Here is the input.
Amino acid sequence: MNPLRRERRLAPLFVFVVALLARTAYWLYRGTAVGADTSGYLRACEVLATEGPIAFAFGHKGILYSGFTIPLCGVLSIPGATFGLWVAFQILLASFGSVLIYKIGTELVDRQTGILSGLAMAVLWDTFQWDVYVLSDSLFTFGMVLALGALAWHHREGTIASRVAVFATMGYLLISRPHGFPIVMGWVLYDLLPRGDQRRLGLFSTRWIPLLGGTSVVAVIPYAVQRYNLLDVWQSGELIIYESEYAYPYVSEATGGTVGFVLSNLHHLLVMGILKTGLFFIPALPRHSAIHIGINLVTYLPITAIGFVGLARAWKNDFHLFRMWATPVIVLIGITAVTFVSWDLRYRAALGPAFALAFGYAVATILPLGDTDD
Here is the structure.
């Protein structure tokens, strides 16, 4: 067999096996886990089964989580199905997602980038630890992989089929978690650039659609402030939600409502935003176990740190790559800076695919191992 052809077959298989073994080993160690939101997803399944799709769509954990809840409800409706079956499904999808990351890196750059990226995704415990939970993070992360793959395909081909794939995968992100909406809008807003600008995604024939998307982001801000009680969070100085010891000590100035508070305390909010950004990327917290801290120091810290180097190199050398990979990072940093850092740091799990690709790109371009052209 041709050595190149054999490598092309063995490399994705190797990535898949590493990803599957890592996740299965952690599952055997940790067991199937649930979170505080799991009961809400199960209630959504009950509403879907008893009250129908309309009540489900507008109920608790409704349409904005349906990309997770509908598959979950479908699996759990199988006679004899348990949470374990769902976790096995997530682990298989996530392992396949590592192979897709390999494929994306290979197609966008070269095989070395693909292999390094796929392996980084395979061992990134900070992301894959959520594959054993009955929570939306695992499927949302897989949705990110699909969207990045569609964007890579569209960047390479620019066909109607690739455009449809981008719309389909972004549509899935929109209904998988509330974070999906701003991430999608971050990518879409590139089409506001002048026609012919190489920084455009080229998804729309008119600039009105991305303009409406940007306007909708602004329009939902008041809802987000009320929905997540952000005024209370800002006034408390809380940086990590439900962690009172991680708070910014300050005395807020008198206000006449949310707008007045923001204008009067803008300097404090900016400082809190910087602190939240730092905490968002912190490898571990003192309350974490020694194993947790050790694994993140070995996997999360180097992959993320070198991933930032990769993003910087992409900005300089290939803006198309930067646009694809950095957009979700920038969006989630912005959301965190104006809201809060999640207690369990799991909101950053969805950035695993972007950082894995950026990591592979950085290492492959800094330390090339030879001819990697196809």
